[in-house]
Amino acid sequence: MNIGDQVLQTLMDAIPAPIFYKDADLIYRGCNAAFLEFIGLPRERVIGQSVYGVSPPQLAAVYHQADKELLLKGGVQIYEADVRYADGSDHRVEFRKSVFRDAETGAPAGMIGVMLDVTVLRSAEAGLLEARDRAEAANRSKSLFLANLSHELRTPLNAILGFSQVIHDEVLGPAGNQRYVDYAGDIVRSGGYLLRLIDNILDLSQIEADRLDLEIAPVDLSALIAECMADIRIGVGAGTAVSVASETSDDVPCIETDSAKLRQVLLNLMTNVVKYNSPGGSCVISTRADADFLEIQVQDDGIGIHEDELQTIFTPFQRATAKGERAPESFGLGLPISKTLMERLGGTLTIASAVGVGTTATISLPLARVAAPEGDSGHDGPRNREPSR
């Protein structure tokens, strides 16, 4: 053995992974110490032998066939197998084999193989998958619990709100003390705040528990937008100087979607405009359609959203700042719920904003319904499309 061969053998022996190489007749011509430890044989019992001389017959046939295919096709061969080491321990091993060629003729001169023990890695992967499944099951249970709890809370809360409103309006006669009337008004306002929070949590829980039922039917979009604008003007927009206007065209196509869910999304977006706008600001709703998609844009000239906050506005309970302060009665659930609802309807919701300029929310819905895949929960998946700006 010359010095070059000694250096190569020393280098191979220093590598902990089993390494071997064979000639074109698939006869072992060299290996390292780790391979001898794996096979449980001395070097002289390996060199000059085929795989049938060093491995059990059944395994030898599998290895030999794989090596023949590698020499025939060339390139690199990677596969995994369960093997038993000489000490009796079982391992999951990844084989990586490659052909080397004759420098003069270019014909296959043999192959070299490396064995990587991936037992621990595969065990860890299996553990992670099991942990993920447990976490998903726990999350579904949590969402189901919240959905049921929200239902249970709404029943007594509605009674509290109803009777408080009766007292505040003195339906059955004078309360006898104005402070009682004022207190009843406080209960109504606080209860209404709590009811909206419960409704949002219920929506989020139903979505996460995959219990969201969709009622797909033709929708008159122009009428729906007009209704939303009226609700905003007499609701959250009452008493503010924020104007709400529509620039929808007369030829808006009729779409098939869930009217209540789309209405909820539009109201969420328009409510945000009023909350995060300056006195005298505006909210403009416009529509645009092409052959496949309908776009609805809700645009304002308000304070805008910081670029770093745009990355988190669709995360539950994350809220954009308004003039350095949190918007009143903001739960941080409207946008996450709206985005998920749009995805369940087969569309998308995107937000573009610049501080001091304003914000544009763009809803994109397919004009043609996309059939849900077999085994799906019944909602349609979004079609890939880059929304226009």
Q: Any descriptors?
A:
389 residues, alpha+beta
Give structural notes.
Helix content is 41%, strand content 23%. The protein contains eight helices and 14 strands.
Overall, the morphology is elongated
**Structure summary, number of beta strands:** 14
Overall average pLDDT = 80
Derived structural class = alpha+beta
Radius of gyration: 34 Å
- Poorly predicted residue ranges: 322-326, 370-389
Distance between the termini: 72 Å
Order of helices and strands: HEEHHEEEHHEHEEHEEEEHEE
Outline of this structure?
It is elongated, with a radius of gyration of 34 Å. The chain is an alpha+beta fold.
Helices and strands in order:
Layout: H1 3-14, E1 19-23, E2 28-31, H2 33-39, H3 57-73, E3 76-84, E4 90-101, E5 108-117, H4 119-169, H5 178-208, E6 216-219, H6 221-234, E7 243-246, E8 255-258, H7 259-275, E9 282-289, E10 293-300, E11 321-322, E12 325-326, H8 334-344, E13 348-354, E14 358-366
Parallel strand pairs: 7-9
Antiparallel strand pairs: 1-2, 1-5, 3-4, 4-5, 6-8, 9-10, 10-14, 11-12, 13-14
Helix pairs in contact: 4-5, 5-8, 6-7, 7-8
